[in-house]
Amino acid sequence: MTALHIPATTTPAQAPPPGALREAVIPGHGFYEGRRILRRLPEGRSEQPYEQFGIAPLGATIGAEVTGVDLSRPLTAALREELNRALLEWKVLFFRQQHLTSQAQRDFARNWGELETNPLLDRGDSEDVVRFDKSAATTPTFENIWHTDVTFRERPAMGAVLQLREVPPHGGDTMWADMAAAYDNLSREVRERIDRATAVHDFIPGFRRFYGPERLAPLQQQFPPVEHPVVRTHPETGRRMLFVNSSFTTRITGMERAESDELLRLLCQQAHVPEFQVRFHWRAGDVAFWDNRATQHYAVADYGDARRVAERVAIAGDRPY
Ligand SMILES: O=C(O)CCC(=O)C(=O)O
Ligand SMILES: [Fe+2]
């Protein structure tokens, strides 16, 4: 395995390549005081009560808790912009105690684009709200696997909004890993091998654990294996991100099977590095909003037979490049 070079401080956002959206460049912050609030929107730019508004980072490069925002109320353009900036910088945002209705959860997510419709409806799902209910024995739960959502699609989700409706008495955390940090810390030799490579993504290996062939067969026509770059460029920040995951990435294009397997193992292991991760302990009514272009996540299955109910909406994304 390659030696890791963990930076002591947050890596500043790189300048975007020509053609990237300029207004989306992340301005440096660097003025958070401890765990609470430091950034206030200018007076009069929103109806939300901004005295409480703040962004409290939870890790070096990934994860921040946003305070003082009521997601059930419509976002003003200024607040949407502020939250987008925070999302680009911290990759997953947490909002405590929101208790959103499904409709409010959809409405919040729609500030970032169309919602994805779910191709595999389970009991309790609506067309665009996926319900993960650990208590229902027939409902598969996507746990224990590091993944980026739906990379078997030509256009994987841009992001997702997840709310916990019911939490187990202990455990049930979710973890996210920063794929920009993971890329930055690869050796130059590995980066040279993957910088222009593409890889095949396929839903079968990831979903085979949860669904029988009778459910999967009809989807094979809708979602044939698709190729994505192994390293994608974030469309808003211009940063390079590692874009393979152990759930759906099956092969690096044009490589011998053994070489591809070995390289994919090394690349997928980057999500396991604690320095690239944040771990969130839920209370019922908490919401997470992640940038699916820049992260992987993992739901920790450490709560036995206890009930855990989560609902997710996903926002349609672009074709990775
Ligand atoms: O239940 C969780 O914590 C995460 C489940 C998941 O993978 C998702 O919502 O995409
Ligand atoms: Fe997921």
TrEMBL record:
Q: Which residues form the TauD/TfdA-like domain?
A: 55-312
Gene3D superfamilies xref list: Clavaminate synthase-like (3.60.130.10)
Q: Name one Pfam family in it.
A: TauD
Q: Give the InterPro entries listed for this entry.
A: AtsK-like, TauD-like_sf, TauD/TfdA-like
Annotated GO MF terms = dioxygenase activity
For this UniProt record, the keywords arranged alphabetically read as follows: Dioxygenase, Iron, Metal-binding, Oxidoreductase
Concerning its family, UniProt says: Belongs to the TfdA dioxygenase family.
Listed name of the protein: TauD/TfdA dioxygenase family protein
The protein's organism comes out as Streptomyces monticola
